What we know:
Distance between the termini of chain B: 55 Å
Number of strands of chain A: 7
Strand content of chain A: 5-15%
Distance between the termini of chain A: 73 Å
Number of strands of chain B: 14
Structural class of chain A: alpha/beta
Bound molecules: thiamine diphosphate
Oligomer: heterodimer
Strand content of chain B: 15-25%
Shape of chain A: globular
Radius of gyration of chain B: 20 Å
Number of helices of chain A: 15
Order of helices and strands of chain A: HHHEHHHHEHEEEHEHEHHHHH
Radius of gyration of chain A: 25 Å
Helix content of chain B: 25-40%
Largest sheet of chain B: 7 strands, mixed
Helix content of chain A: 40-55%
Strand order of the largest sheet of chain A: 1-2-3-7-6
Shape of chain B: globular
Amino acid sequence: MTVQELPGAAAYRPTPPPAWKPLTDPAPLLPDPEPYRVLGTDAVADADPELLLRLYSELVRGRRYNTQATALTKQGRLAVYPSSTGQEACEVAAALVLEERDWLFPSYRDTLAAVARGLDPVEALTLLRGDRHTGYDPREHRIAPLCTPLATQLPHAVGLAHAARLKGDDVVALAMVGDGGTSEGDFHEALNFAAVWRAPVVFLVQNNGFAISVPLAKQTAAPSLAHKAVGYGMPGRLVDGNDAAAMHQVLSEAVARARSGGGPTLVEAVTYRMDAHTNADDATRYRGDSEVEAWRAHDPVRILERELTGRGLLGDDGIEEARVAAEQMAAQLRERMNADPVLDPMDLFAHVYAEQTTQLREQAARLRVELDAEQDQPEQHSADDRGTGR
Amino acid sequence: MTTAAATARERTAKAKPATMAQALGRALRDSMVEDPSVHVLGEDVGTLGGVFRITDGLAKEFGDERCTDTPLAEAGILGAAVGMAMYGLRPVVEMQFDAFAYPAFEQLISHVAKMRNRTGGAMPLPITVRVPYGGGIGGVEHHSDSSEAYYMATPGLHVVTPATVEDAYGLLRASIASDDPVVFLEPKRLYWSKADWSPQAPAAVEPIGRAVVRRPGRSATLITYGPSLPVCMEAAQAAVEEGWDLEVVDLRSLVPFDDETVAASVRRTGRAVVVHESTGFGGPGGEIAARITERCFHHLEAPVLRVAGFDIPYPPPMQERHHLPGVDRVLDAVARLQWEADN
Ligand SMILES: Cc1ncc(C[n+]2csc(CCOP(=O)(O)OP(=O)(O)O)c2C)c(N)n1
């Protein structure tokens, strides 16, 4: 028996409670149940061929970047690499839809988005190489530091976008998060703040199926992650994350909406992580080959290539050109990553406070003495380290 | 006549009793007038003026874009402040009560404290987090925590706590002006303490990181801060009758820590008691005692003692007087300083 069916319910509630009025009509906020697609559908006729070709070359470069970075972990040049192979369409589209004045808030998996936005590939990798936390000036590139604690960068994006709007700048912030990250409190708080403040933010969830080993079904009971938007009062959009054209279109619309004062949007990209969580993960423990193979058929690079060649926009020459450009990038990356970074241990104390405390000055002096002693007896030291494990 | 003397005379002329709460409000207002990038945000800080009325009038004067009632979510508030600071604003965040700042710890520790370091100095975050802290106001559960040890243990944060009306103004101004994040701990039981202080007259902006000797003495040093300063001053007064001339050092800043002032005092007196409300085990007093021992061992006539809150969750208000270190407990410790090796 529902509340309405209770005997006499109508008599007790002749009018709605006085304070009650719906704040928002939910219907326009709800995502379509099917992920939006462009490639292989009629919608592709509206897509700008030049944009599609640009996306293609970026995807090819992005794929190569992923395979190269993964190879660098095997050579001990990177401490860890969370590959975005399979997710390049999301990464590239996120970067390309932003204007120069806009801000990108990437997670640890989104190195490629930062590189596609124009960040030097080596600067983008310092965190994962382990020499410096953030190898670039975030303000110069308008790319926030790659964020490791899940979803914590989302409220930053909201605050930055809000501040920009207060200053009268038409700046948009695009913040990226994984499916697992949507369970974090900061995700909810960020979406709520953004909606209440009508902040010019785009939240991009890359639903790649897993949070390390945990599948989406154990992460959420929602119909989709895009559905979460309606509860905050913002539109949710579900999009095929392997369809670069669809990604670009949906994100562009969300950016335009934000820029024109329409408030935030939550975009869920349905995609798949082809590699393991990082090079240190064993994905065979939690997923089978057949699932991975099924997604391989929907590879973002291949489906765009097929579309472009099918429509006569791309020929063997074009494919080769993109491949060569990607190889050049990879060769440069390899070469530059082969050089050991030069580190100054005294930097450890340099950027804790604007002005070093006396305590830090004392500690820095102590380290200085240790370093000088090391310089005096370099051989004995390294022998010690190796021999005794001290 | 020196300018300082003239200023002092002018101030005494205009001075009338003002509370610490008023001085804090005045510091916020003056900062907002001087620097348009200063924004206040938090729960109920706008129309209501904060549950302690510290932000009273700010929304009216500066509009709700400069003094903003946020949704009720501490991580969101502080996280948004991070983004605002990234874009060049100077956010001042109010956490409603000490124990309600805990949801924001992730943002505080992983981002606020570390952003300068993570970006190699490229992106400092000038955020002030105001936290009313400590007990003694009859608050029920979760309204009386002293969380300073958590903040102190986090490199990258300044931790500041005023104990006087003048310092409330001067240190808050300095905190807001600081390019580093500051956790500004407001001893809520001193909110209504008064001093002859004129908000109209030019007031000192106190640099962060300097302790001050509130009462000179020769027999022993009481080292304290925030809500325990009045307790120590009273204890020092009472100790005179026992023939003890106590020096009282008000730390004002826990990070950076003013080793110099503290050590100089202890070297003079040869004895020290650290007094604070927060728990003793793992509390600030252990750190302070260790620092004193390292620097002043040969000057010490007795072990450094601590008078702290008990190592219990903050008690219900009807029991809090048993927990809070009072004058008797301080005097008892002073008596124990007459220490001999066979004790
Ligand atoms: C607050 C927090 N908790 C746990 C972790 C450890 N961790 C790193 S990645 C990860 C899974 C994240 O999955 P998802 O959000 O789906 O992103 P994906 O790795 O798939 O891109 C976990 C649990 C973390 N980084 N931060």
